[in-house]
Amino acid sequence: MTKLTVNNEAVEYLLDPATPLLWALRDASNLTGTKYGCGTGACGACTVDVDGRAVRSCQSTIAEVEGSFVTTIEGLSRDRAHPVQLAFLADNVVQCGFCIPGIVMAAAVLIKNDRDPSEAKIRAAISNICRCGIYPRLVEAIQKAARAARGDETLTAGARPGIDPSEAAKSVPALSPR
After folding, report:
1. Where is this region: Disordered (predicted)?
2. How many whole angstroms from its chain centre is CA 115?
3. List of domains in the chain
4. What's the predicted TM-score (pTM) here?
């Protein structure tokens, strides 16, 4: 049995120790924000924070990270108030959104370890693949997040994305088949 701390909660996985961390997080812990992309570690959709390192969870087994502290996108900030999340919203970085959790996690690890990363460091640290091509907005958003993390800039969440279901739909009697 493999023990980890996932999003500040102790977890003991009753899985084969060779199970990739990605599948333990997604299937056993129901943390589906960590995405399966390529399965080879090339795309970065599965990136999580393991003890302050950006790790491709599809390439790490739970045995390899036993005893570690793992943070997923769900554990980064429940209210989307992490500087990276706020900067991505402010700069309208997100397009389809599939790659975003992995990119956010890689960026969060970067600015946790380097509060003033250069453009070159950002480009080196964020090797994630985005099929939508968000790269032109990415560097500035991460620099903005770093400034906010240092306290040099203030970012606000603005309106929460989404629709309040109580204002968007109501139950009605079922229709009869024609």
Report:
1. 153-178
2. 19
3. 2-76 (3.10.20.30), 83-150 (1.10.150.120)
4. 0.87
In order along its 178 residues, the chain shows pLDDT tens digits of 899 999 999 999 999 999 999 999 999 999 999 999 999 999 999 999 999 999 999 999 999 999 999 999 999 998 889 999 999 999 999 989 999 999 999 999 999 999 999 999 999 999 999 999 999 899 999 999 999 999 999 998 665 556 676 777 777 787 777 7
Residue 117's contacts (CB-CB under 8 Å, 6 or more residues apart) are 110, 111, 125, 142, 143, 146
Report d(CA 175, CA 75) in Å as an integer: 42
Beta-strand pair 53-56/47-50: antiparallel
Q: 5 has which bridge partners?
A: 10, 69
